[in-house]
Amino acid sequence: MSGLSGTSYGADEHGLICGFWIHPDQPTESLPTLAQAQARLADPAGGFVWLHLNLTHAGAQPWLARHAALAESFLEAQQAGSRSSRIERVGDELFAVLNDVTFDFAFDVGDVSTLWMQVSEHLVLSARRAPLRSVDRLRMAVKRGDRPRSSVALLDHLLRDQADELQRIVRQATERVDDIEDALLAGRHAGHESEVAALRRLMVRLQRLLAPEPSALLRMLSNPPHWVAEDDQQQLQQASEEFALVLRDIQALQERIRAVQDETSARVAQENNRTLYVLTMVTVLALPINLISGLFGMNVGGLPFLQHPHGFWVVVGLILLLTGLVTMLLLKATGRRQ
């Protein structure tokens, strides 16, 4: 058996990102090509093979069609781009559609992609279109020497990595919401509307994509394949509970974000009302001068004070008098309303 140092990441002509033969009591063997993986599958020797493929590679789909004994649901789901999370039993194998964040995740709703998996007693086949964080963490863990005792234990490891990654996202989003709330309390809400809306869209998308997963996992555990050990079933049950906790955290964060949005909207509306009130006051106070200047600017016969030596100041005084009267009426109306 060869060590892991010879792994050629993503260099296989058929789109193989990484391949490993894993045995709980023996050193992990790297399988840098699908030809070597097929040879090892012919004699798994008590272990199992994990193959991780890049579906954007031109050679991946043809190889899967020719050599992989895939369930129809696997092919249909990845060809149709199925996005609903689930882990279900198909014959004597497990089929999983898992949603995860991309490797360059930046709190954007488009940074969520799909991983398709098929798990049998001696083979774990995973495929993705975009680099994903959780499966990459699993790949690095296997390279460092982690040896899951079975193919289901590898799936459980991936689920726990995914739950940890989601919890980290929720923690970072919570910190950003805390900062926005502090800014709102200090009266600085300008510029946060778009960020709050983006966070809410992200949480809604994560909950929508991940919410079906725990229930689907429980349905599978009620009738697992015969080769799934009882210990593995218990581990998957615990993984389901961890996901349920993360989903509850996401839901709680959604409520906080909704409250922040409501508060932000209320303050924006209050500022808009104040601005409109000021504009209305200025317009009303300018009404006398606009009205009188308009009348005296008609240039028709009979205009008063046309020949009066102090006519200009008389008109100015009239304007000030009317403006003061309007101001008193507005102040009285405002005080009555308050």
Automatic annotation (TrEMBL):
It is found in: Cell membrane. It is a multi-pass membrane protein. Keywords: Cell inner membrane, Cell membrane, Coiled coil, Ion transport, Membrane, Transmembrane, Transmembrane helix, Transport, Zinc. Residues 236-263 form a coiled coil. CDD domains: ZntB_u1. Its main location: membrane. Pfam families: CorA. SUPFAM superfamilies: CorA soluble domain-like, Magnesium transport protein CorA, transmembrane region. The chain crosses the membrane at residues 276-298, 310-331. PANTHER family: CORA FAMILY METAL ION TRANSPORTER (EUROFUNG), ZINC TRANSPORT PROTEIN ZNTB. Belongs to the CorA metal ion transporter (MIT) (TC 1.A.35) family. This is Transporter. It comes from Roseateles amylovorans.
